[in-house]
Amino acid sequence: MSVSDKKISFEVIKRLPRYYRYLRDLADAGVTKISSQALGKKMNVTASQIRQDLNCFGGFGQQGYGYNVEGLYSAIGEILGLHNGHKIIIVGAGHLGQALINFRSFERRGFTIIGVFDVSKDLVGKELCGHKVLHMDEVEDFVKKNKPDIAVLSIPKTAANDVTQKLISCGIKGFMNFCYIDIEVPDDVCVENVHLSDTLMTLSYRIKNTQEGKK
User: Fold this and answer.
1) CATH assignment of 86-196?
2) What is the pLDDT of residue 1?
């Protein structure tokens, strides 16, 4: 059975980017091999969890040797689909959009911003970090010509579904959604919802319960 035939838990998939980041840091520090115990200690997870996660994809370590850091980093990158890179457009060039344009980790991870769009007359035509802001009226022709894989949405939630449907009709299959609304997409389109306030509320809950537990 190939990896693509297996039903991999979404919780396992969510942990892979964290492994990827830690392995890159280890490689940059000159570490060539590491045991599951040592990696787990750095990441604050159990060695058993690491072995179980990686075994979902066939396993990569050797007993008594551990993991080859560069080899495992490369393998996880391939599992995550990073090797061929992805082209991104950012829709919404306000404060959040501009912060995302300046987020250098995108390109380090193989995600290249190729276009930025907005409807504001104060933003359209401006250059932001080397990208000229284009009007949304141009997005359809741009997408069909340049074939981006992913659209990052940082627009008002009232416009989110209409813009999403327009971009889907142009062929975009992946969305990173900062709009604080669950957008409607067909089964063959992927969405990652990023709700910053939800994360803060979850953190609030954890702080509350930690404090109550000390009483």
Assistant:
1) 3.40.50.720
2) 37
